[in-house]
Amino acid sequence: MLSFILRRILIAIPTILLISVFVFSLQKLLPGDPVLAMAGEERDAEVLEYLREKYRLNDPVPVQYLTWVGNALRGDLGISLRTNQPVTELIAEKLPVTIQLAVMAILFALVIGIPTGIVSAVKKGTVIDYVANIVALSGLSVPNFWLGIMLILLVSVRLNLLPASGYVPLSEDPVKSITTMLMPAFVLGTALAATLMRHTRSAMLGVLKSDYVRTARAKGLHERRVVLKHAFRNALTPIVTLTALLFGELIAGAVLTEQIFTIPGFGKLVVDAVFNRDYAVVQGIVLVTAVGFIVMNLLADVAYVLLNPRLRTA
Amino acid sequence: MSIADPILTRRPESRVWKKFRAHKSAMLGGVLVAFFVLIALAAPILPVPDPAATDWGAVRKAPTAAHPFGTDEIGRDVLARMIWGAQASLLAGVVSVGIAVLLGVPLGIVAGYFGGWTDAVISRCTEALLAAPFLILAIALAAFLGPSLTNAMIAIGLSATPIFIRLTRGQVLSVKAEDYVTSARAIGLPTPKILTRYIFPNVLPPVLVQATLTIATAIIAEASLSFLGLGQQPPAPSWGSMLNTAKNFLNQAPWMAMWPGIAIFLVVLGFNLLGDGLRDALDPREH
Amino acid sequence: MNAFKTSLLAGLLSATALTVQAADLRIALQSDADVLDPDQSRTFVGRIVYASLCDKLVDITPDLELIPQLATGWEWSEDGKSLTMTLREGVVFHDGTPFNAQAVADNIDRSQNLEESRRKSELKSVTGVDVVDDYTVRFNMAAPDATLLAQFADRSGMMVSPTAAKAAGADFGLNPVCSGPFSFKERVAQDRIALERFPDYWNAGEIHFDSVTFLPIPDTTVRLANLQSGDVDMLERLAATDLAQAEGDGGITVERAVSLGYQGITFNVANGEKGDNPWGNDKRLRQALSYALDRDAINQVVFEGAFAPGNQPFPPTSPWYDADHPVPAQDVDKAKALLAEAGYPDGIDLEVQVPNTTVPLQLMQVVQAMAAEAGIRIEITSKEFATLLADQSAGDYQASQIGWSGRVDPDGNIHQFMTTGGGINDSHYSDPKVDEMLNAARASTDFEARKAEYDGARDVLIEDMPIVYLYHQTWIWALDTNLKGFTPYPDGMIRLEGVTLEN
């Protein structure tokens, strides 16, 4: 197992390089000139040309890429063309926000999604099952912006219970930080909960009919134990896969939710950066997201083995 | 089917269909989906106003007899736009999920079953695709392929592929270690047969669930793409772009968001029920 | 869980109740500012932040009169080639550096010579700055430039600490040091820009807040919700469609001012191959489009009647507006006749690129429907802004829906768009007579003389119509009713002198 993990960590290095090449070339393919996009209404040709030179945008693309890699290796991810802030600083600023939102949202999703899925599978065909499914699917179909704005109007404007939007660092005031993020995490969590619920239900249905559950029942084990210990454990594969992926996606940023609740995370930053052709910012965030996905996928793969020890030999 | 499966010896298709028909919720799902497909197809002959016809005197008016679903931000009939938008939205939902499934499932099976370098290459590419911001892909596609619904569906399909690869691969990994697969391999059953007989049926349930869920995401994603210049261009309607516009009028004209929201919910509900039914019908253990 | 949440919330509530007492003013902005260096910045919201952070040589009144700020008086030389300013004494920058004539000279030098400076074209006419004495400075020009004073009322006139600027160079924007009523405290990208009271401000008596926090909140509904819930004290650019709701709320005051800018449709007249199309070649088609539009209806449908319909680069309320060419009424027959005259009796297609945001898309769909009545079949291509801008400047477009945020001096709204080779003349429109008149309007400081030149140019431009002007945005601010003393300005800035929060 340890060598497996080590091997994967070693593979991660070329993977990250691959991703950075991929994203860098994609960005260079985009129409639009970063300097012009940044100029807005101030388009002094001379200054634009100077900035192109300064940020080495006139170099051949491979040279630009190698320059970027060279600097990145020294811990310099460049600066934002828009605000002149160093990208490393931006990442350091946004990463805790993004992670906090992701963790809270995924917790919401797990806490709501999995138990509902299990109950729904056990009580298949009953009213409970139907209601759970309909609630889950509406959670999925309700657009995040709608739920978000409705929550703000109700909870913040009408009831004045929670701040409408914004972000308070966890280190500054933990209680306020968590309460401020309750609504966005809930909004994000509902859609994810729906996905997890449907998968849990489906997987549980499959497992509940399998031989070993029947055997367990035949052995006279308590139903609760059968469901939670034998069945659930075997239904976990798709749930693990999805949780890892969804968490990765949350790290990449939840644009709309961030925008509505004005949370300064990766989502809004990367979208603005793409629109402004702020290459260094995009590259930097992709780097972090890539690491996020790699770690999550690795954890999923480790979890598969833990769940199914027979895989260890495979 | 093979003789080895006693349950499936007698006309398996009709048996599946029978089970499916007996599945009440699945039939309801089928009816829902059929309803929207019919509406999408019949849009040109339905007695509704021109979906692009504007009426400056009736901007953002609540539902009335003349406009049963109300009017939108520039005085167009929301019902007509819902009906005409059905086609784009259903296509965006179904075709892009189709692309994702057709690409993702085979790749996932190959990666999971063969493991080693094959798995490594497929999995690392999946990670690359996951980490690349969707927006960049979409803008690049919009710029190079031009604005069209087809290109939007390709973009959405591509971005949804990794999840199917990962889901399939994970499922294959866990099934691969099951006794019946190892013994099938031990007795020398050809690989294609193992894949179709043992692996694929086990991969199907999560894929079905994910596919029916992704339809909702895809319908909504089409809207963000039409904003980037991919997908439907104004004034052609789609549910997603209707929702997107309605976002700015939640206070003043809540119906603008309500109808497309309900429609997306019903379509997704329909496909999910259908998926459940299909899953039960294809499951030989189900009675 | 619920009980737990409620108790958490109760704790939170008492905490927020306290912060209301502290004199922090929270202002919601529509977007995040760019780099906070007056010499390098480009965005409108950036200028809003500067209004509290950086003082300028001169300021404007709501009627666009120029008034003293850091300069207490000024005088043009007889030949109009030099401008002498007397400076306010006793002013210091946030870092304690004294403000004087040398500081002004250093600032102009930086604006003109910092490689990254975006102010070069605004100050192009200045050939030298003489430090006459500690508090007198003279700007020398090769030719008279009437626009210079107005430039000094904006970023070109913002004075930054020469000491800090020298030390930080191009990175000055990370920690800006100016001489405004508030000094820079911190910035978290996309979250907040925090300023705190500068105790040594020369006009400190007029400033009634300990700190100002600017919060970028892009969603208009959410911006308003934040005001309603008391999380912010004021916001800029309320959506016109939210007006009714804000005005109906007893806790909110709404202020507005017609902006200096405009929105319109720019045609590619001669910018590359794509300019060689019927729309670029035949002014009658462009006139037809203008006649096909009901600008009042556009304003009603898209902006609830809150904006100002327009047909010139200056709003009808501006002293520079040419009243001889009033906003035309919709005339579909005339539009059709013009199309027929141009050889398109059965109508014609037009491709318009539009920024991919809600308002422009809504606007263009209304235009599309109106134009269709006259037989103009508009195809809308929505593009994200960077692509749109690149295509526009490269001439890869037929028509483009774009606008201009506006400048205090009329020159800024017209010269660079309409003169041959102008910096933002993406249309590549060129007419020697227009060039001549617009250049002449720059050279005079006399209102009547300048107005005559602009009117003369308008007579030509209203015919040629390289830009079909549509409307002028109205800046709409929504404030907590307890916030008193706010004055709306047509430049859209938020000036905090005299603004107080009463309880």
Description:
The complex is a heterotrimer of chains A (314), B (287) and C (503). Chain A is mainly α and 314 residues long. Chain A contains 13 helices and no strands. Chain B has 287 residues and is mainly alpha-helical. In chain B, 71% of the residues lie in helices and 0% in strands. In chain B, helix 8 packs antiparallel against helix 10. Chain B is globular. Chain C has 503 residues and is of the alpha+beta class. In chain C, the strands form 5 sheets. In chain C, strands 8-9-10-1-11-19-12 form a 7-stranded mixed sheet, sandwiched between helices. Chain C has a 6-stranded mixed sheet with strand order 14-18-13-17-15-16. In chain C, strands 4-5-7-6 form a 4-stranded antiparallel sheet, with helices on one face. In chain C, helix 9 runs antiparallel to helix 11, helix 14 runs antiparallel to helix 15 and helix 15 packs antiparallel against helix 16. Chain C starts with a helix and ends with a strand. The N terminus of chain C is likely disordered. The chains are: A mainly alpha (314), B mainly alpha (287), C alpha+beta (503). At the A-B interface, helix 1, helix 6, helix 7, helix 8 and helix 10 of A face helix 4, helix 5, helix 6, helix 8 and helix 10 of B.
Brief sketch in words of this structure:
The complex is a heterotrimer of chains A (314), B (287) and C (503). Chain B has helices spanning 12-22, 24-42, 78-114, 116-131, 134-145, 149-176, 179-186, 191-227, 239-246, 255-282. Chain B is mostly helical and 287 residues long.
Characteristics:
heterotrimer; A: 314 residues; 13 helices; C: 503 residues; alpha+beta; seven-stranded mixed β-sheet; six-stranded mixed β-sheet; globular; disordered N terminus
Note the topology.
The complex is a heterotrimer of chains A (about 325), B (about 290) and C (about 500).
Chain A: H1 2-29, H2 34-39, H3 45-54, H4 61-73, H5 87-122, H6 127-141, H7 144-158, H8 174-208, H9 211-218, H10 223-252, H11 255-261, H12 266-275, H13 279-307
Chain B: H1 12-22, H2 24-42, H3 78-114, H4 116-131, H5 134-145, H6 149-176, H7 179-186, H8 191-227, H9 239-246, H10 255-282
Helix pairs in contact in B: 1-10, 2-3, 2-10, 3-4, 3-6, 3-8, 3-10, 4-6, 5-6, 6-8, 7-8, 8-9, 8-10, 9-10
Chain C: H1 2-21, E1 24-29, H2 44-53, E2 58-60, E3 66-68, E4 71-76, E5 82-87, H3 101-113, E6 126-133, E7 136-141, H4 148-152, H5 162-168, E8 182-188, E9 192-197, E10 211-216, H6 220-228, E11 234-235, H7 243-247, E12 252-258, E13 262-267, H8 278-281, H9 283-292, H10 295-303, E14 308-309, H11 332-341, E15 348-355, H12 358-374, E16 376-383, H13 385-394, E17 399-404, H14 411-418, H15 432-443, H16 447-464, E18 467-472, E19 474-480, E20 483-484, E21 500-501
Parallel strand pairs in C: 1-10, 1-11, 15-16, 15-17
Antiparallel strand pairs in C: 2-3, 4-5, 5-7, 6-7, 8-9, 9-10, 11-19, 12-19, 13-17, 13-18, 14-18, 20-21
